Amino acid sequence: MIVMILGLVIFLGMHSVRIVADDWRREQIARLGEPSWKGVYSLVSVVGLALAIWGFGQTRLDPSVVWFPPMGLRHGVALLMIPAVILLVAAYVPGNAIRARLGHPMLLAVKLWAFAHLLANGRLGDIVFFGAFLAWAIVAFAAARRRDRAAGLTAPPSRLPATLATLVIGLVGYYLFAMHLHVWVTGVPAIAMG
């Protein structure tokens, strides 16, 4: 559990610099240059994420069960992950209406992903792991919206083809991950058959 928590602190801490120390972040970018800052940011983030994932896997070897979620919640997770994947895709497809309307779809995707996984997992390691991501995404989304308002940002124009592409890519991505890749990546089937 300690390794997982350390990884979460490093990963989410690095991703929180703009929230808690934006002036310091700007100073570092000015001092190092944007490419070097992005390199350091990425390296620290990868190390933190690797530790968090490895530590998370270790918590499953000797789990502490806090509660036993009803089996039906697994279906809820499967349903919540559909919009989560679409929101994730919306963060990267330029000109889609989802991003224009919601502003920060990646953070909303993380919120949905974490919340959905909290519903169906009652082990302490799961609660800490997904709970940390949920808490971070809530704070990061609120901070991003405040920055947008302070900067006077308005929704960019959107195009129907980009929005349709976002939906199609999101649905295909959901299908591929849920039906084929989830078990390979996590060792757990996303959707229990039978």
Automatic annotation (TrEMBL):
**Keyword Flavoprotein recorded:** no
Q: Where in the cell is it found?
A: Membrane
> Would I find Cell cycle among this entry's keywords?
no
Q: Where is the signal peptide?
A: none
> Which InterPro entries does this UniProt record tie to the protein?
NnrU_dom
**Name of protein:** NnrU family protein
NnrU domain location: 3-189
Topological relation to the membrane, as annotated: Multi-pass membrane protein
What stretches pass through the bilayer? 37-56, 77-98, 127-144, 164-185
Keywords from the UniProt entry: Membrane, Transmembrane, Transmembrane helix
